[in-house]
UniProtKB/TrEMBL annotation:
Keywords from the UniProt entry: Coiled coil, Repeat
Ranges in a coiled coil: 30-120, 809-997, 1022-1099
UniProt-annotated stretches for the region Disordered: 745-765
A single GO molecular function term of this UniProt record: actin binding
Residue intervals passing through the bilayer: none
Protein name, per record: Uveal autoantigen with coiled-coil domains and ankyrin repeats
Keyword Calcium annotated: no
InterPro entries to which the protein is assigned, alphabetical: RAI14/UACA
Length: 1132
């Protein structure tokens, strides 16, 4: 027996080493869990930092949007100034029209006065000539007063803003031209605004794409954190399984102790008589060993109790987390309702903006209709004046027909004779008068033809201007939008951008909006093509224009040179003006395209400064993290040192102990080496992380340097590209010089007008001379006599001349291209009349006429001469009216020339429209590319959704696997409970056998009373331990229930996590924090359960040791006896 006892002790020693190995494993798991928790905390801090960066970027975007709104307000102010300038120009137009009406009334009044004076004072030539000169002087004063009106226009225009400086350089331009130029400039400004808005939209789209990428990255990080939390939960479940295994091991140890105790009891009863004091000592030694084992078992039981407490705390925290998640879900639902309300409000605002757009379009249509009505009124007035001129010509024709009838009536009265000398003188005089009248008539024909040609040109130019104005109106209606509406559209787009940053689902609606914009651009492109076609159809072909110019040049040989010189000068000035306008446009374009305004530069500078500050904060955070990493490394190194010290102490203990096996020692050393390797690996990982952080810091420094370089480059570009004030002042001087040259040219044109007026005065003086000659002819007729045949011939000659004049007047009204043939016909008639006059002179040499007939003829001739004078005066008045009309037509021609657009400018406008069309096409292509990119993005999002669905399916499969594992663990636990019940039954059987042996050994009672007392105490201890074992079994069952409940809660949380995975990053961060808290609570519960298990094992060991030593409490003995009786009852 002595040889067998050490063998039993050596077999029991590995069981003592098992708790230490379990403690080492639990320590490792705690370290791993602690590291995982730290990593989760770091990731949570990184996510918070990223959220802060996103919020800062949102604030920067809002600041930029406010700046753009301010710019739009400034542009709206400029548009209001332009409208006020338009109103001033319209007022000037009305004032000028009133002046023209007053001047026409004055001319009519002067014409009526002239007719009255000519009718009253037909005999007095000198007085008539003086009055005629006075009238012409008054007309000259009116003509000189008319050009002063455009000179007063610039003074009114001086109060205008300097938005369009080129309008101030051309004060001689008509209001229609200034309005056309203002519309063009407004079109240019609106186009530039539209381009700027388009650039802003593209920039916002890029920022949206960046934000979408960031959101995708955050979603990926959230999924990663979720996976890590799932792994941690699995690790915790594994740890719980380990705890359960430890509990089962402790229960097995308890059962082994019970069997060993029974064996000792049997050994004591069997060898009590044979053995003496030596057996008692051996039993004491075995009791000590069992006490030590009991202490270990009680400590393990204490650990299990601690773990149970921790599991209870975990369950409570799980419930709290569930309550928090419910509250978060409610808050998110409220936020969703608020977002829906905001979306409805924005839709209402969009509807209001559409209504305002429609109102603005109606206002623009009204304005354009007003301009159209004003232009149509001007055209109607000009048509009315032309109709009045035609009516006056028809009146003259009727008067000439009346004179012809009177001459035919007077032919019968001219039956007497006149002297041949007087007849010759009259003939010569009449021939001279006829020549002069023919010459005057030819000049008047030329002038009227030139004026009519100029009127036709003016009509054509006016029609072209009308077409251009209509085209510009159509462009304004189709292509451009008011500034208020554009501001509201920008605000709406900014609001949609914020919504898109909040929700990724609204990106599809944005894609639809962009496709609608692409369709609008296509429609605008078609409208532009239509407007280009209209412009091409509106302009006259060049060949037809050249033919008409040639025909007009043949008819207007005298005035063509002057007009050509004026047109050349005008074209030169217009070319200069167009060059200056193109230069100004190019300068504006370069200023808009190449140069950056100060506000945007300051905004970029502020953004870069904010990025620098943010990077500095990130550097500080990284430094703090590095310090924390260093501290953790120091702590790990300290822990390593402590572990080494523990190893040394353990080695010393192993060396100082007596019953330690070499295999256990090697196993412990291997475990410690593994711990050391793990610590070294952790240290290497920390070093790698430290190096990675250092690399990130170096990258951030490099990025900061690159940003500083970019800032320096931007400053250099600003310094190099912005033009200095000196160059701008030189350009202003050039513009002032051109303005002076244009003013000098205007003065030259005024001098030329004055020369023309002097020529008109000379023509009037020649008419007065003709009248004086007619008076002298009347006097000669009164004094002398002519034959009847010669008088008839003279009447015929006068009748033929009147017919020719009437025909010429009719031809002037009807056809302007038949002037040369009319001249030839008149020359033939004059030659025929000369031949007839010669024949009459040859006949008059041999005949005489009586005095009575000559007096009657003289009376008739006086009447006819007076009638002819009246006709001449009326013709002169009509000629003067035609001269005035021609001057007005010339002035209108000059205005129309100033207002019309030359062919070079038309080509330039056409090229600009073509460029805009090509730009619109390129923009359409870009939009199509963007739509394709968006379609690709949508496909990517769909693929991501599919991947998320697959991940959900995987999670569900994992949950199914976890449930299967849980069922397996449950089945194992049930099997273990059954085995424990069987072992208890065996123990009860052994106790019955012991009782039977005790009954058989009744005669030896007196000898074995101390042994019985000890056995009784041992039985009580065994009962107590059984009760504790039952309690531990009940606690195990409760733990299993709690584990099932926690598994259900984890499943519910996983479902909530999968449901809330599409929610914003705030929710994800909250879930991560909740999971971290759950991990911490689970770790605490594990530690408590282990502590409780160790306490139970230590208590069990102490009770066993006290029972072996004979120092068992009465309560413990009673409990052990009760357990034994209960087992006996169960066995029975």
């Amino acid at each position: 027996m002595k040889k067998g006892q050490p063998f039993k002790v050596t077999n029991m020693l590995p069981k003592w080493s098992q708790p230490n190995a379990l403690e080492d494993m639990s320590f490792k798991t705690h370290q791993k869990e602690h590291r995982n928790v730290q990593e989760l905390e770091r990731e949570n801090e990184d996510l918070k930092g990223r959220l802060r960066e996103i919020q800062q970027e949102h604030r920067i975007l809002l600041d930029r949007i406010n700046g753009l709104q301010l710019q739009l307000n400034e542009e709206q102010m400029v548009a209001d100034d332009l409208e006020s300038e338009k109103d001033e120009l319209r007022r000037l137009l009305t004032a000028k029209e009133k002046q023209k009406e007053e001047s026409s009334r004055m001319l009519e009044a002067l014409k009526s006065k002239l007719r009255f004076y000519e009718g009253d004072h037909g005999g007095s030539g000198n007085s008539f000539g003086n009055r005629k000169e006075d009238v012409l002087l008054k007309q000259g004063s009116t003509y000189s007063a008319e050009p002063q009106a455009p000179a007063s226009a610039p003074a009114a225009l001086q109060s205008r803003s300097m938005v369009r400086p080129l309008e101030l350089l051309s004060p001689s331009l008509s209001p229609a031209a200034s309005e056309a130029e203002a519309l063009k400039r407004e079109l240019g400004n609106l186009r530039s605004c539209y381009d700027a808005a388009r650039g802003e939209v593209s920039r916002l789209q890029l920022e949206l794409s960046h934000k979408a990428a960031e959101c995708k990255a955050l979603a990926a990080e959230c999924e990663r954190t979720k996976q890590e939390s799932d792994q941690q939960i699995k690790q915790l479940e594994d740890a719980l399984k380990d705890v359960q295994k430890r509990m089962f091991d402790s229960e097995g140890k308890v059962k082994q102790m019970q069997t060993h105790f029974l064996a000792l009891k049997d050994h004591l009863t069997s060898e009590a008589a044979a053995t003496g004091s030596k057996a008692v000592e051996e039993l004491k030694e075995q009791l000590k060993d069992t006490k030590a084992k009991y202490e270990g078992a009680s400590a393990e039981v204490g650990k299990l109790r601690n773990q149970l407490k921790q599991n209870e705390l975990l369950v409570e925290e799980f419930r709290r987390d569930e309550a928090r998640l419910v509250d978060d879900n409610k808050k998110l639902q409220r936020e969703l309702s608020m977002l829906k309300v905001e979306h409805e409000k924005r839709e209402r605002r969009a509807c209001e903006a559409e209504g305002q757009l429609k109102e603005a379009a109606a206002k623009l249509a009204e304005k354009l209709e007003k301009v159209k009505s004003s232009l149509s009124g001007e055209v109607e007035e000009k048509a009315r004046r032309l109709a009045e001129a035609e009516a006056e010509r028809q009146k003259l024709r009727t008067e000439a027909q009346g004179l012809r009838a009177e001459l035919e009536g007077q032919r019968g009265q001219f039956a007497q004779y006149v002297r041949p000398e007087e007849h010759k003188q009259l003939k010569v005089r009449y021939e001279q008068k006829a020549r002069e009248l023919e010459r005057v008539q030819a000049e008047l024909k030329h002038q009227s033809q030139a004026w009519q040609a100029e009127a036709e040109k003016a009509k054509a130019g006016h029609s072209l201007l009308k077409q251009q104005v209509e085209a510009l109106r159509s462009e304004m209606k189709s292509q451009y939008v008011p500034l208020k509406i554009s501001e509201e559209v920008k605000r709406a787009s900014d609001v949609t951008v914020g919504e898109l940053n909040k929700k990724l689902a609204e990106s599809r609606e944005k894609c639809q909006k962009h496709s609608a914009e692409a369709e609008k651009l296509l429609a605008e492109n078609l409208r532009l093509k239509e407007t280009v076609g209209q412009l091409q159809a509106a302009y006259i072909p060049r060949e037809k224009h050249e033919k008409e110019m040639r025909a007009l040049k043949l008819t207007t040989a005298g005035l063509e040179r002057q007009l050509a010189e004026l047109s050349q000068k005008y074209r030169e000035q217009q070319a200069k003006a167009s060059e200056f306008a193109s230069k100004n446009a190019t300068l504006q374009e370069t200023m808009e395209e190449q140069y950056v305004p100060v506000a945007t530069h300051e905004e970029v500078k502020a953004g870069l400064n904010s990025t620098l500050e943010r990077t500095g904060q990130e550097l500080l955070e990284l430094k703090d993290k590095m310090e924390s990493v260093k501290q953790e490394f120091v702590r790990v190194s300290d822990e390593n040192g402590t572990l080494k010290r523990k190893l040394r102490t353990l080695q010393s203990q192993v060396q100082g102990g007596e019953y330690i096996n070499t295999r256990e020692h090697e196993a412990k050393v291997a475990a410690l080496q593994k711990n050391i390797q793990e610590l070294q690996e952790n240290g290497s990982e920390m070093q790698a992380k430290y190096q990675a952080k250092q690399e990130e810091v170096a990258q951030l420094h490099a990025e900061i340097k690159a940003q500083k370089k970019e800032l320096d480059m931007i400053q250099e570009c600003i310094n190099s590209k912005y033009a200095p004030l000196a160059s701008f002042e030189e350009k202003e001087r050039c513009f002032e010089e051109t303005a002076k040259e244009l003013r000098s040219q205007l003065q030259k044109e005024r001098e030329q007008r004055r020369e023309r007026e002097e020529e008109g005065k000379k023509c009037s003086q020649e008419n007065e001379k003709l009248k004086a000659r007619l008076l002298s002819v009347q006097n000669d007729l009164q004094q002398n006599y002519v034959l009847a045949e010669k008088s008839h011939e003279m009447e015929r000659m006068f009748a033929s001349k009147m017919d020719g004049l009437n025909k010429q007047l009719c031809e002037l009204q009807q056809k302007f291209a038949e002037i040369q043939c009319e001249k030839e016909r008149l020359q033939e008639e004059s030659a025929r009349q000369r031949s007839e006059a010669r024949e009459a002179e040859s006949r008059l040499h041999g005949q005489y006429v009586p005095l009575e007939q000559v007096e009657a003829l003289e009376r008739q001739l006086g009447r006819t001469i007076e009638e002819l004078k009246g006709e001449l005066s009326s013709k002169e008045a009509s000629c003067q009216q035609e001269v005035q009309k021609s001057q007005e037509l010339q002035q209108e021609m000059a205005d129309l020339k100033a207002a019309s657009v030359p062919l070079a400018e038309h080509l330039r406008i056409k090229e600009g429209l073509e460029r805009e069309a090509s730009a619109a096409k390129s923009a359409l292509r870009e939009k199509e590319g963007e739509s394709q990119e968006r379609a690709e993005k949508v496909a990517k999002l769909q693929s991501e959704i599919q991947s998320a669905k697959e991940a959900l399916w995987e999670l569900e499969s994992r949950e199914v696997v976890g449930m299967a594992e849980h069922k397996m663990v449950k089945s194992k636990l049930e099997g273990q409970v059954g085995s424990m019940a069987e072992k208890l039954a065996e123990l009860s059987r052994k106790l019955e056998a012991a009782q039977q042996a005790r009954m058989e050994e009744a005669p030896t009672k007196d000898k074995k009373e101390p042994l019985q007392s000890r056995n009784f105490s041992i039985e009580q201890e065994i009962k107590d331990q059984k009760e504790r074992c039952d309690k531990s079994l009940s606690t195990i069952a409760e733990l299993q229930k709690r584990i099932q409940e926690s598994a259900k809660q984890v499943e519910a949380k996983d479902n909530k996590l999968t449901y809330n995975s599409g929610l914003p990053t705030k929710r994800q961060s909250q879930q991560v924090e909740v999971l971290q808290a759950q991990v911490k609570t689970l770790q605490q519960q594990l530690a408590d359960a282990e502590r409780q298990h160790q306490e139970v094992i230590s208590i069990y060991r102490t009770h066993l040791l006290s029972a072996v030593q004979g120092h068992m409490d009465e309560d413990v003995q009673a409990a052990l006896l009760q357990i034994i009786r209960m087992r006996q009852g169960l066995v029975c």
